[in-house]
Amino acid sequence: MSKLRVLVNGAKGRMGRETARAVRAEGDLELVGEADLGDDLAAAIRSAAAQVVVDFTHPDAAAGNTETILKSGGCPVVGTTGFRMEDIERLQAISQELRRGGLIAPNFAIGAVLLMKFAAEAARFFPDVEVIELHHERKVDAPSGTALKTIEMIRSALDSGGSGNAPAERPREKETVSGARGGRYLGIPVHSIRLPGYVAHQEVQFGAPGQILTLRHDAPSRACFMPGVLFAVRKVVALERLYYGLDAILDL
Fold first, then answer.
1. Is position 135 annotated as part of the catalytic site?
2. Topology of domain 110-221, CATH
3. Of residues 135, 149, 191, 201, which has the active-site annotation?
4. What is the largest CA-CA distance in the chain?
């Protein structure tokens, strides 16, 4: 039985190195190439005859890399964050035209995917919600892709009608220090923390009269992302379109 041929882009980074180790340890996968900044990604994919390309690089390069992977014959598994929705829609159109599967996932930890699902469900009953994400000091995009995806799922649940609850009315706020209340995405407050010692963490807080509900996921090690990455690597070769979010392919 032939092995699935995998190339890792961003192989010199922390997630790239972890991914390369994980691929090497799997009997049905073969690491056929490693690329990084300054390399010709298209040439590397074609030279290695890579079937799947895992990308953990930089937000500024994410959309371009994904397009290159698709057009060079590879199925992308992209964990790089920083995508705009219009980028994803454009890449999905390219994927559909090529009939080539792929995945863009803000988070590959199964626990983080469950947190997003639980948060969307909770929002139907607790419409007052804020998202706090905490990452290492070298993460360059804020809010994180996980936080944005979480808020998109919460917003969808709220817009679907939920339980009929509405957010509590609040007085007009005044920030004595600009940014003290964080930012807003789709109308939902989001706060980003960047400190040494963190890896990837997220907390979603819901408030209602007399009660607080907190959902939290902690990823103290990058190893927790690897089962999701390997699942996606094996899955995308059988798909014919580009999906957004690991949750979208778990039951396919």
1. yes
2. Dihydrodipicolinate Reductase; domain 2 (3.30.360)
3. 135
4. 65
Q: What pTM, to 2 d.p., does this model score?
A: 0.84
Q: What is the mean pLDDT of residues 94-116?
A: 96
Q: Which residues of the chain does CATH 3.40.50.720 include?
A: 4-107+223-248
The span from the CA of 46 to the CA of 29, in Å, is: 18
- Beta-sheet pairing, 29-35 with 211-219: unpaired
List every span in the chain annotated with CATH 3.30.360.10.
110-221
Check if 12 is active-site: no
Contact predicate 203/214, CB 8 Å: yes
Mean pLDDT over all residues of the chain? 95
User: Domain 4-107+223-248 belongs to what architecture?
Assistant: 3-Layer(aba) Sandwich (3.40)
What's the alpha-carbon Rg for the chain, to the nearest Å?
Answer: 19
- At residue 39 the predicted structure's pLDDT band, cuts being 50, 70 and 90, is very high
Amino acid 64: pLDDT: 97
**pLDDT of res. 83:** 92
Q: Is the pLDDT of residue 19 over 70?
A: yes
- Mean pLDDT over 206-229 rounds to 96
Q: What pLDDT score does 167 carry?
A: 76
pLDDT at residue 44 is higher than 80: yes
Q: Which of 3, 58, 117, 139 is catalytic?
A: 139
**Rounded distance, CA 65 to CA 123, Å?**
35
Q: Which ranges constitute the DSSP H helices of the chain?
A: 14-24, 41-48, 59-71, 85-98, 110-123, 145-159, 226-236
Contacts of 45 (CB under 8 A, 6+ apart): 7, 33, 53, 68, 69, 72, 73, 74
Distance, in Å, from the CA atom of 53 to the CA atom of 32, rounded to the nearest integer, reads 10
